Amino acid sequence: MGGSGPRSLEIPGTSKLDYNHGMSNPKRALVILAPGAEEMEVTITVDVLRRAAIEVVLAGLDGTATVTCSRGLRITPDAALADVSNDYDVVILPGGAPGAQRLASSELVGRVLGEQWSAGRMVAAICAGPTALAAHDIAKGSTITSHPSVRDRLKDDYEMSDEPVVESGQLVTSQGPGTSFAFALKLVERLCGAEQANRVRAPMMLVG
């Protein structure tokens, strides 16, 4: 293999995939992508949800330009966050310290999360993603988990758990890249039921 240039991955836009085939009430997920996001948390979550026939829109915080993630992988969003509607069954925040910082400082992300939470719909965050929840006053007082590196920044606002995935009402949180499959499968279970989650899990040959 030659060359060592930037790595690029284009996750196909939702218009190219037939998510709704055979489903009377397809579920929809919004994943917010910022520069510096943790690529495993983005790609595994999107992939697992799409395997479950959930319509996933990967929305770029800075528009539709290709985003460089924390380890140099480049991902092209489906749409700009500013252009998407806010009628998703779940809004998902990946981690990665630089990406999470951008999510935490964005007024637009704050509005999206606030509307989602006020409507009683699900919010999910993984790794450093929960720091954006705190920054935007989402679900304070709830029990959550996070990457250990940001735990001290969250412990005054949340009850902290050491579990890899934590459900607290309409909120789901998880710890990091290694828990991405468990995180994504929990979201499938919440949106589509345990049977669908098991059907998606089986052919992936996950260990444990």
SSE run: EEHEEEEEHHEHEHEEEHH
| Average predicted confidence as pLDDT | 92
Examine the secondary-structure arrangement and name the CATH architecture. 3-Layer(aba) Sandwich
Outline type: globular
> Helix count?
7
What's the CATH topology name?
Rossmann fold
Your description of this structure?
The protein has a seven-stranded mixed β-sheet with strand order 6-3-2-7-8-12-11, sandwiched between helices. The chain has a three-stranded mixed β-sheet with strand order 1-5-4, with no helix packed on it. Helices cover 31% and strands 21% of the residues. By secondary structure, it is of the alpha/beta class. The chain is built from seven helices and twelve strands. The model is unreliable at 11-22 (pLDDT under 50). The protein has a single domain, classed as Rossmann fold.
